[in-house]
Amino acid sequence: MLCACGESALKTTVEDYQQRLERLLQQPLRPPPQAVFAPAPVLPQTLTPTDSISLINFLKLQGCQLNSLIAERNTTLGRIQYPSARLAYDLRLLQGFSDCREHPPAQFAPDDLQQLSVLIGIKQHHAEVSWRRLIQDSEELRQGFWAPNGMIRGDVNDGLAETETALSYLLTLADTPESLDLAELETQLAQLRKFTLPSRMAHTSQYLDQQFSRLTPWLQRTLPSLSCGRGQSTTVNYLANVFALFFIQQIQPLASKLNQYHYRLAPLFQQLAEHRLLTQEYKAAVETTQLRQFERYKQQTQLHLQVWQSLFQRCQINPTSLNPLQR
Fold this sequence. Notes:
This protein is mostly helical. Helices cover about 70% and strands about 0% of the residues.
């Protein structure tokens, strides 16, 4: 089955489909283009904000029991935190400052509380930047969205449910950061890196788009001149068999899986493409590779089907009722 074999099976099937059509129509098809998949977007570096707390304020904050948390950033390990750990740290510090404002130490003056409110605003910005850095710069997201990971398989090994859960969790953190659990975050990031489904969906839709955009115009020029004829040994009947064997039985099931994946994940892709905390460059890249690319693939697939439907209607043939050719 095609859906169990992945990228190599899809390419082999499409190539066999095209070669069979060439032999039957005795018309050369121009060589396939070199497949060029969209690279990872070139993004401006997400700078990690620096923490600036004066010694006097630091000593006052000791009454809030935040000194150990603040000092954690000054260690070598703290300064090279991974995006996930940095986000968790910023949220812990933000929560600590907020708790301190709600229950200030006795030595705090009104000016200290006002300055603490300013500091909370700064840390909220830091947390937003850390979330952006997690989405745009973390290795797990770059692997999951942009690495050349092949194509979908069409089975549970594609990780649709796991990917949907992981992306939903990451998007939720932007609005409800208090729900962050570092262990859970690392688990969800690992799922994205394991399955790399967004990347493989984009590669699959781009490959089929490229192939159909080459094959369909060739069929549009060739099929209308064919005579329908009579009997089971006509060229049109052989073509219908090839269409049933390769497109209906093998390509279309994988395309249906791709459609299913897209409709499940498209709302999450749309949120990323519109999110206020992400850069315009990143949002444009998601829009292009995950949303517009799918629409191009869908349009090319529909055009391909229309060409065949026109032939079958003219010749009164139902390709699914014919005996498929043997390989």
